[in-house]
Amino acid sequence: MPSSVMPTSRKGGSRPSPTAVSAVGFCKSYGDKAVLDGIDLRIPAGSVFALLGPNGAGKTTAVKILSTLITADSGELSVGGHDLATDPQSVRAAIGVTGQFSAVDGLITGEENMLLMADLHHLPKAEGRRVTAELLERFDLVDAAKKPASTYSGGMKRRLDIAMTLVGGPRIIFLDEPTTGLDPRSRHTMWGIIRELVAEGVTVFLTTQHLEEADELADRIAVLNNGKIAAEGSADELKRIVPGGHVKLRFTDPGAYRSAASVLGEAVRDDDALALQIPSDGSQRELRSILDWLDAKSVEADGLTVHTPDLDDVFFALTGPADAPDQPKENAR
Ligand SMILES: Nc1ncnc2c1ncn2[C@@H]1O[C@H](COP(=O)(O)OP(=O)(O)OP(=O)(O)O)[C@@H](O)[C@H]1O
User: Fold this and answer.
1) ipTM given for this complex
2) What are the residues whose beta carbons fall under 8 Å from the beta carbon of 143, sequence distance 6 or more?
3) Helices 154-166 & 184-199 angle (0-180, nearest 10)
4) pLDDT (tens digit, 9 = 90+) per residue, 18-59?
5) Where is the ABC transporter domain (predicted)?
6) Could you tell me if 25 and 169 lie in one domain?
7) Please, are residues 291 and 280 in contact by the beta-carbon 8 Å criterion?
8) β-strand 268-270 against 275-279: which pairing, if any?
9) What is d(CA 78, CA 24) in angstroms, rounded to the nearest whole number?
C-alpha cells in the first residue's frame, strides 16, 4: 500500500486545526539501511497521533528526528510551525519529549529533578518552585517528592518524566512508548494523563506497540513498516482495510450443524468443534439475514459470536514476519 498523506482532522471537528507536525518525504538511513524511506505526515494541533510498528521499524528514529535529537537525511519537516532544519531552537522550545531516553536522574529526588528542569527552562526560582509543587501534586508524586528517583516504581518514574516535560509548558509532546513495562493500572493512569493533556489543547505524538493503546487514545494512527507508512487512518478506518470479520455459529446437535453447513456454502467448517465461520462485516443487516435464514430452516444454533477485525489484525496484515525489520544497532549513539 503506498504511503500517502491523508487528512488528519480531529474526530467531530468542524474547522481544520492548524498543523502541529508536518513532514514531507523525510528519510533517514544507517549505512545502507533505509530506516525511514520517504515519510509524509500531517498532524493537526490538539490531536493524538500514534505511530505503530514492529520492533526496529524506525519509530524511535522518527521521534528523535522530529524532536531535534538527530537530523534527517532529507525531507521537509516542521514542528510547531518551525522548520526543523533552519530553526531547531524554536522547535525545542515548543516541544517536550519523554520515553525510552528518559531525562530522570535517579540519584536526586523527584523534586530536585523537577527544579533542575525549571532551571533549564530559565524559570525564576519562585516560579520554578510553584510549577514543581503543582506538577508533583497533579501527578500524585507529593509523598515521593523527597525520595531519590531511583527508588520510584516504573509508573512513578514515567509520571515524573512527563511532569518534568511539562515544566516548560510544551504545546507538542512526543511520547516514545509511554506505557511499555507498566502494569494495567499504571497504564490506565498514563492514558488519563494523556487525555487530560489533549483536553488542554496539547498535541501528542505517540509511539507504541500496544495496539489497544493506539485504539484508546489516537485520533489518527500510522503503521510504519519497512521504512514506509504502510497505512494511515483512524482506528476504525484501519480496521476496515483488513478482512477477517466473521460470525461464528456454534452447535451442539451434529444434525443441525450438518444441515447448516450444507446450506451455508461460504462458511468455514470446524467439524470437531461443530462451529461455522461465516465471513461478515458484523453489520446489523448481515446479522439479521443470518438469523432469518436460521429461523427459516428451523436450525437452532447454540451460540453466535461476532468478530470484527481489531488493530491486531491490521498490524499482522500490514507488518508481515518475513520482512521483519528488527536489526541490531550498528553504532548506537
Ligand atoms: N545509531 C544507530 N546506528 C545504526 N543503526 C541504528 C541506529 N539507531 C537505530 N538504528 C537502526 O534503525 C532501525 C530502527 O530503530 P528504532 O530504534 O528507530 O526502531 P523502533 O521502531 O523504535 O523499535 P523498538 O520498537 O524496538 O523501539 C533499527 O534497525 C535499528 O537497529
Assistant:
1) 0.96
2) none
3) 10
4) 899 999 999 999 999 999 999 999 999 999 999 998 888 899
5) 21-251
6) yes
7) no
8) antiparallel
9) 9
SS3 call for 43: strand
Query: Strand 74-79 relative to strand 82-83: parallel, antiparallel, unpaired?
Result: antiparallel
User: Which CATH number does the domain housing residue 220 bear?
Assistant: 3.40.50.300
Instruction: Please state, as a whole number, how many other Cβ atoms lie within 10 Å of the Cβ of residue 143.
Output: 10
Pocket lining: 332 vs ligand 1, CB cutoff 6 Å = yes
Judge if the beta carbon of residue 34 lies within 6 A of ligand 1: no
The predicted-structure confidence for 273-314, as pLDDT tens digits, reads as follows: 999 988 887 778 888 888 888 888 888 889 999 887 777 778
Q: Is the CB of 101 under 6 A from ligand 1?
A: no
Question: What is the reported pTM?
Answer: 0.77
CA-proximal residue: ligand 1, atom 28 (nearest): 56
The domain boundary, picked from 211, 240, 269, lies at 240
77: in domain:
yes
User: What residues make up the domain containing 216?
Assistant: 19-240
Here the cell at position 156 is 512513578
